[in-house]
Write a structure and sequence with these properties.
This protein is of the alpha/beta class. The chain has a single domain, classed as 3-Layer(aba) Sandwich (Rossmann fold). It is built from 16 helices and eleven strands. The strands form four sheets. Strands 6-5-7-10-11 form a five-stranded parallel beta sheet, with helices on both faces. The protein has a two-stranded antiparallel sheet with strand order 1-2. A two-stranded antiparallel sheet has the order 3-4. A hairpin with a 6-residue loop joins strand 8 and strand 9. Helix 1 packs across helix 8. The longest helix is centred in the last third of the chain and has 33 residues. The chain is globular.
């Protein structure tokens, strides 16, 4: 099967883009809004395909990046995975609260090191991105370990920083087919995990992060711990949306062998492989106010019920943003439906957690509408058990006489600090206890215990 999009089969597929957030070592996506780009950009003055080539040349990898990533003896955060692009390994990072070191260790089955009640049978597995992995804290400071200590039973942590909902789901399928399977499954979804589902190669869309990574890469790591940006976001299994039907289509990793990554060091290969990939088209439309293939986009807009004039540069940027968001949320709905189906078929229980970054928390405090409301409505309509921690933060904020920014400083250092993970653990505690049968040891009668 050929995975590179051509102009002919471009019609059938869509992916969405995002931006980067520096400071934590990981890529962090955000929605690409029309207001993020100015009509005054000089890039509009150049021929469109020339602009696309220049954009893609900036994403070309250096061979030394791949050399270190594939070197089993090198200091690094992630290791190659043929299906999901990468998984995690033991490491020491200088990214913790107050500039401290954090220690990340992983069990042979892939979950983060279990500390509390680790030798007891485990019936709860958690999956998700870095807000599940609990990046920027040490093993004993994750929300899973805090909650496990309170409940009196262990919780496995299969989170991987940078994953989308789909990649976390694929990891779930893998782990649940092993001896580490569990009766109760938690799928934790952070704000912008939705847009990662349909990325073919996330590295393309994070221009600022790439520059920071290149600078950090040149620094020595002789100190014994990792600093700065962490290499990840290589190609993985992903989703696309059929423009004619709106159906979601699953695709395997187009670079499934370690040596395949070296193709991404060749600017001609990158250009030919990604020039008509939709994530590139959406970004270039944001930059230039026009699409390379307006006829195809018009059909996609019709299918997704997106209105606007493609010949108007400002409206074109808004169309790109609307497509970005609507397709991302639809892909997550598809994944959750698949996860529910898997759980029911295998006699398991599924709960969705909705995590949030500090930008979403601040917006909620200021009364701004959440961008993922349609996804929340979907969970309610489907009667899928979930906990919305954004609402928990809104309620908690009422107890303080703080500005939104100062409130967030209590809990966030990019990701949650140890104090933030403590908040999260107890924000979801009541729903978790109600969900579990029999109740966890801390909530059983003395005779039962």
């Amino acid at each position: 099967m050929k995975y590179n999009l051509t102009r002919r089969n471009f019609l059938k597929n869509i992916v969405v883009g995002g931006t980067s957030l520096a400071g934590t070592g990981l890529l962090s996506d955000s929605l690409v809004l029309a207001s993020d780009f100015s009509e005054k950009l000089s890039i509009e003055k150049e021929p469109q395909m020339s602009q696309t080539r220049k954009f893609l040349e900036q994403a070309v990898l250096k061979r030394e990046y791949i050399d270190r990533f594939l070197d089993p003896k090198a200091q690094k955060w992630a290791v190659f995975d043929s299906e999901l692009g990468y998984t995690l390994q033991n490491c020491v990072l200088k990214n913790g609260v107050d500039g401290s070191l954090t220690f990340e260790n992983f069990e042979p089955a892939g979950q983060r090191k279990m500390i509390n009640y680790a030798k007891k049978p485990c019936r709860i597995n958690s999956y998700g991105d870095s807000f599940t992995e609990c990046h920027q804290v040490s093993d004993g400071e994750t929300w899973q370990e805090i909650l496990a200590a309170h409940l009196g039973e262990p919780i496995r942590n299969f989170g991987v920083g940078g994953y989308g909902v789909y990649q976390a789901y694929r990891r779930m399928l893998r782990a649940e087919a092993t001896n580490s399977s569990a009766k109760y499954i938690i799928l934790n979804i952070w704000n912008y995990d939705h847009i990662r589902n349909i990325d073919k190669w996330r590295w393309i869309k994070v221009e600022g992060y790439r520059k920071a990574f290149d600078k950090d890469f040149q620094k020595s790591t002789k100190s014994g711990f990792l600093t700065g940006s962490l290499f990840h976001a290589n190609p993985w299994a992903y989703l696309r949306i059929d423009a004619a039907t709106g159906n979601v289509v699953e695709y395997p990793n187009p670079y499934p062998e370690p040596q395949d990554l070296y193709k991404l060091c060749d600017k001609e290969h990158v250009y030919n492989a990604f020039r008509d990939d939709f994530v590139v088209q959406i970004i270039m439309a944001q930059k230039t106010g026009k699409f390379d293939y307006p006829e195809e986009i018009a059909q996609l807009c019709k299918t997704m019920n997106i209105k606007g004039d493609l010949n108007d540069s400002q409206q074109c940027r808004k169309i790109a943003s609307d497509l970005h968001l609507k397709c991302a949320l639809r892909s997550s709905m598809y994944v959750v439906d698949k996860a529910v189906e898997f759980a029911e078929k295998n006699n398991k229980k599924l709960m969705i957690l909705l995590s949030c970054g500090r930008d979403s928390v601040v917006k909620a405090f200021r009364g701004q509408q959440r961008f993922d409301q349609s996804f929340v409505d979907f969970l309610v309509k489907k009667n899928i058990p979930f906990v919305d921690t954004l609402e928990k933060h809104v309620e908690d904020f009422k107890s303080f006489n703080l500005s939104p920014i100062d409130y967030c400083k209590r809990y966030y250092i990019g990701h949650y600090s140890p104090k933030g993970n403590h908040f999260f653990a107890f924000a979801i505690k009541d729903e978790i206890v109600e969900w579990l049968e029999p109740k966890p040891p801390a909530y059983r009668t003395l005779e039962t215990t």
